[in-house]
Amino acid sequence: MQTLTPHVHWAQRHAELYLRVELSDAKVGTVCSIRTTAQGHGAKGDNEYEFSLEFLQPVRPEISHKSTQRLVDIKIRKQEERWWDRLTLQERKPLFLAPDFDRWLDESDAEMELQAKEEEKINRISVESRVPYLGLKKGYLFMYNLVQFLGFSWIFVNMTVRLFILGQDSFYDTFHTTADMMYFCQMMAVLEVINPLLGLVKTGFFPSMIQVAGRNVILFVIFGSLEDMQNKPVVFFVFYLWSTIEIFRYPFYMLACMGTDWKLLTWLRYSLWIPLYPLGVLAEAVAVIQSLPIFDETRLFSFPLPAMLGSSLSFSYTLQLYLILMFLGLFINFRHLYKQRRRRYRSRKRKVQ
């Protein structure tokens, strides 16, 4: 049987050489640093194939190869980790040899790849050295999200049950039945502003601050300080929208702490907020507007002015400015959450591919 020469493609890195031999269903015989023989199906059918290469620099004796139904991959380690100007000792390239463009990198790209691997190795060592810290961090974040989930779940269930039993009458005493738990949850939420500053979470500081500060203004300043606001139906809608959003958000973060992804919960987390978040801001805006005449009448939190300018400046002017900032915050937070949603689904799509 005639011995033929197969087509061979090559590429290199600083430490290794890669040869791809175009032989299907090959049975590799001998592989050494300068000569390879195999029986397989090549460009001219089933034959014995052989090729030899005299490398530009010495290589290590241990050579690995892997045969598939379509080709033979050979990996050879260089004696010294350095970049070669060419593969063979002779300047003229053999006719059967060609670059492997699937693996081909120039020297600068190969150096960048090598540097990236070194950085990955350093990061892995760094992460391993921080395992106790990571365990504490995950434990803390899991417990925080669990406590918040339980708190908002209690509010949601309480309001839902009362709505079914009392109907519209439950609108008027929402604050008195759920305020204590809402106070607790919103005071705990201040940690969501602190966590990004400490590097515990990747969430941005400003989106968290805008959301937490906005809710606390509504809860403590408008509902908490004005008794006339506490019996209004708007309290029900604000609390119900807040708790509906959070009973899906906090379990999502709990599972993330455990490295688990539940597709339905992820979809709810990144889909329900699209209608609920603007509705929540709208309900907050209604609460602010309803409180304006009460602040004008009671002069609560008014700013004293010099006698020539008048007695005081009503706090309602501050709230009117706050209304503008509230809708600006809606835009910033909505944009931030939308980007998170797109990144999440792009990442999942890449994993599927």
From TrEMBL:
Q: Which residues form a coiled coil?
A: none
Q: Which SUPFAM superfamilies match?
A: HSP20-like chaperones
Q: Which pathway is it part of?
A: Lipid metabolism; fatty acid biosynthesis
User: What keywords are annotated for this sequence in UniProt?
Assistant: Coiled coil, Endoplasmic reticulum, Fatty acid biosynthesis, Fatty acid metabolism, Lipid biosynthesis, Lipid metabolism, Lyase, Membrane, Transmembrane, Transmembrane helix
Q: Name one GO molecular function term.
A: very-long-chain (3R)-3-hydroxyacyl-CoA dehydratase activity
Looking at the UniProt entry, the stretches that span the membrane are 140-161, 235-255, 276-295, 315-338
- Gene Ontology biological process: fatty acid elongation; sphingolipid biosynthetic process; very long-chain fatty acid biosynthetic process
Q: What Gene Ontology cellular-component terms does the record carry?
A: endoplasmic reticulum membrane
UniProt function note = Catalyzes the third of the four reactions of the long-chain fatty acids elongation cycle. This endoplasmic reticulum-bound enzymatic process, allows the addition of two carbons to the chain of long- and very long-chain fatty acids/VLCFAs per cycle. This enzyme catalyzes the dehydration of the 3-hydroxyacyl-CoA intermediate into trans-2,3-enoyl-CoA, within each cycle of fatty acid elongation. Thereby, it participates to the production of VLCFAs of different chain lengths that are involved in multiple biological processes as precursors of membrane lipids and lipid mediators.
Full protein name:
Very-long-chain (3R)-3-hydroxyacyl-CoA dehydratase
* Organism annotation: Labrus bergylta (ballan wrasse)
